[in-house]
Amino acid sequence: MIQNQLLDSGEDRLIAKYFRPLVRHPGALGLTDDAAVLSPPAGCDLVLKIDGIIGGVHVFQDDPADLIARKALRVNLSDLAAKGAKPAGFLLSLALPNDINADWLAAFARGLGSDADNYACPLLGGDTDRTPGLLTAYIAAFGTVPQGTMVRRSGARPGDHILVTGSIGDAALGLRLRGEPKMAARWKLDDRMRDYLTQRYLLPQPRNALAEALRVCAHAAMDISDGLAGDLAKLIRVSNVHAEIDVGRVPLSDPVKTALAAEPPVIDDILTGGDDYEVVCTVPPDKVNAFRTTAVAAGVPVTDIGRVAEGAGTRFNWDGRELTFERPSFSHF
């Protein structure tokens, strides 16, 4: 009787019910072991990434559970994409508050499994705990690239074009709307625009469809998680070069353009607010067309916003003046 109780702990039952059905990779060992096995393809490097979602910090406590799970995985997939890596699998570390119930867990597992399948990034294992504090979901994601070909931040070269995917500022404004719903009227947004921005905050769109093109074409790349201004500055700094950005060419969605027209100072939030999970990259002139062609085929918008030059620092030019930012990047500290 004691042996059966030990083999049937609450954590074992939770894993068996909600997460074992998600297993697709044989290296996960059916989530019956305390480790997993992952063998990279011959001639490949493993790319490793860990990022987390904390309730009250990265998501609101009442955000839908399935979207929290998908966001937790997608913020990691976004980093793999920027490195030119193909997803290989992930580990999940989940700390659950006392008020989490079976319906929440079922929705979380459903969202996680859906994206794991859609992005071919299988669950390999992890850890599940109870916490008296806030919800915490950390994911360690693994990807593969041919040996020595991972796209780094530090490769930007003078003459490179600076390109960004998608649109910038949607999630930052969506987060403000989530906390301050009255901003929609102030920014003259209709319901459709408001909902679009809120959804962009809730559910990033990682650009894994461009991972191979980034690996082949880009000298440097990183995903934009802490704001275009701050993340590009990091890339430029470690590359020991200078960047000139034409803010008028930074791609903005119609809802963001509407908010900017109503309140021009919101440009700071757009460029520094974070949560875009787009990719900024530097591409040599002779590979720009090839990169664009791949992006068009993948249905991912790509915009040329500036150039890399000799020197140091990053300059954002808007209507003939240089923009300066009180807080150029989101930071937890």
Overview of this protein structure:
- By secondary structure, the chain is α+β, with helices and mostly antiparallel strands.
- The chain folds into two domains: 2-146, 60s Ribosomal Protein L30, Chain: A (2-Layer Sandwich), CATH 3.30.1330.10; 153-323, Phosphoribosyl-aminoimidazole Synthetase, Chain A, domain 2 (Alpha-Beta Complex), CATH 3.90.650.10.
- Helix content is 37%, strand content 24%.
- It is built from twelve helices and eleven strands.
- It has a seven-stranded mixed beta sheet with strand order 6-8-5-9-7-10-11, with helices on both faces.
- The radius of gyration is 21 Å and the shape is globular.
What is the name of the CATH topology of the largest domain? Phosphoribosyl-aminoimidazole Synthetase, Chain A, domain 2
Percent helix: 25-40%
**Secondary-structure arrangement, i.e. CATH architecture of the largest domain:** Alpha-Beta Complex
State the name of the first-level CATH class of the largest domain. Alpha Beta
The largest sheet, given as strand count, sense and whether it forms a barrel, is:
7 strands, mixed
Count of distinct structural domains: 2
Termini separation comes to 51 Å
Oligomeric form: single chain
Main-sheet strand order equals: 6-8-5-9-7-10-11
Question: How confident overall, as mean pLDDT?
Answer: 93
* Low-confidence residue ranges: 1-6
Helix-strand topology string: HHEHEHEEEHHHHEHEHHEHEEE
Structural class: alpha+beta
Q: Give the overall shape, derived from the CA principal axes.
A: globular
Measured on Cα atoms, how large is the radius of gyration?
21 Å
Number of strands: 11
Proportion of beta-strand residues: 15-25%
CATH homologous superfamily of the largest domain - what is it?
A: PurM-like C-terminal domain
**Number of DSSP helical runs:** 12
